[in-house]
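Revision sheet: structure tokens.
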Amino acid sequence: MATSGTNLYTAPAGWYEFVNSPQIAASNDPHMCVFWKRATSSSETNPTIADVASDDAKIAVVFTVRGVNTTGVPWNVILGGIAASNTAVSCPSGTTTLNNCLVVNIVAHGVDVSSTNEFSSWANANLTSGTEHFDEANPGGGGYGLGIYSGVLATAGAFTNTTATLASASRQSLFTIAFRTTWIS
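Predicted:
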């Protein structure tokens, strides 16, 4: 099983693709491309995601991580992976070298749903202040969705897999980023 593949998207103007992006299990499975940009003002414009003819459906989310270093990369660890069709979610675990990292887990799924919320029971015993930031799916039958969860790793070192439960079984594209800060909005 491959852990990455050919990206269908190019980075929007002024944005950069993370290492380990994209995460693509197979051509008909959830594709996840993750980009970043350092804000230069408090009123950044939304990126434009170009339409791709071979793209069945897409969802994009912009979230702000505050308090990161202003030069160099804003992260300490980046991990990616894919999972076979399952209701169990297990985001990649890792090891940080800095205290007070914000560990953000992003999961793309291919569930053809009738409701918009698919994730429940997010958990990671190593993280404090665990928060679900996003849980949306396409209720129109397009078969895709995205979940974002974060927590703080107070002391540098290993952290275990963040887990969650999907309402229906699906293959998953997974991404874990440990940012050099403890704030997200």
